Amino acid sequence: MAEKNYYGTYAQFDTDDKKEAMMLIGPDNPVGDRYRIVIKESEDGDVAWLYNKFDKPVGHLNQKITQDMKLCKARGWEPHAFLSFLAYSEKPDPGFYWGEVIIMAYSPALNAPMATFEKKLMSAMAEGTRPNIDFGEGSIQQIVETKGTWFPTDRVRLPKMDKHSAMVKDQQNANERLIEESRKGNKGCYAATFVFYAVIIVAVLYGLHSCGVF
Predict the structure, then answer these.
(1) Phi, psi dihedral angles at 182 (to 5 degrees)
(2) Please, which contacts does 70-77 make with residues 24 or more away whose CB atoms are closer than 8 Å?
(3) In whole angstroms, what is the distance from residue 172 CA to residue 123 CA?
(4) Helix ranges, 87-186 (H)
(5) Which residues fall within 8 angstroms of residue 179, CB to CB, at 6 or more apart?
(6) Could you give the dihedral angle defined by the CA atoms of residues 205, 207, 211 and 214, in that order, rounded to the nearest 10 degrees?
(7) How much is the CA Rg of the chain, to the nearest whole Å?
(8) Closest Cα to residue 34, out of 12, 17, 58, 68?
(9) Which tens digit of pLDDT belongs to each residue from 112-162?
(10) What is the distance, to the nearest Å, from the Cα of residue 137 to the centroid of all Cα atoms in its chain?
(11) Beta strands 96-106 and 80-89: pairing type?
(12) How do residues 5-38 score in pLDDT, each as one tens digit?
């Protein structure tokens, strides 16, 4: 908890089963998306879970981050996260999906400028940008003074992957962008998404027909 009115860090999350992993792989959980952080009790103690915009749990954070989240909530802050990337590791068997999120929490006095800042953050992350969000008082002051339009220029590198791990996604693809725009009410993108899936279905049916399936 480096700053008295702000908390920001990159944090690893893990998935418990294939159901969570499949949700993260799909277009309903694009890079840059925002997640609620919910503290849940377990046999091994409290655990911080990530919940997506459809109110589904998709992964959990480690004990250190969970403790930080509890402290944030005790201060009256509402911690939340943004998906940075999703990866897969085949070791240990039988393999598992994991990733990183940006976590932020701050004093309610910062809600207005941070709301604007977070829109810029989500857009940047969707393009694969990994900004440094370990803000000191000077950076927070810039966000306040610019009403959230200031954005950091420093970047954070992706963690190194071993030979048993691979990146699944670290930015939004065209299909995810179309789906997100259609959900915002963009009729043109909705139509494009429909056409996109129609083309895929036609291609699959043509392939099956060429193979003599029907």
Answers:
(1) -65, -35
(2) 70/39, 70/46, 71/1, 72/1, 72/7, 72/105, 73/39, 75/107, 76/107, 76/108, 77/7, 77/105, 77/106, 77/107, 77/108
(3) 10
(4) 111-126, 137-145, 174-183
(5) 27, 30, 189, 193
(6) 10
(7) 19
(8) 58
(9) 999 999 999 999 999 999 999 999 999 999 999 999 999 999 999 999 999
(10) 25
(11) antiparallel
(12) 999 999 999 999 888 999 999 999 999 999 999 9
What is d(CA 21, CA 72) in angstroms, rounded to the nearest whole number?
A: 27
Task: Please tell me what DSSP assigns to residue 167.
Answer: E
> Taking the CB of residue 124, how many other CB atoms lie within 10 A of it?
16
pLDDT digits (tens, 9 = 90+) for 90-101: 999 989 999 999
Tokens at 82, concatenated: 């943004």
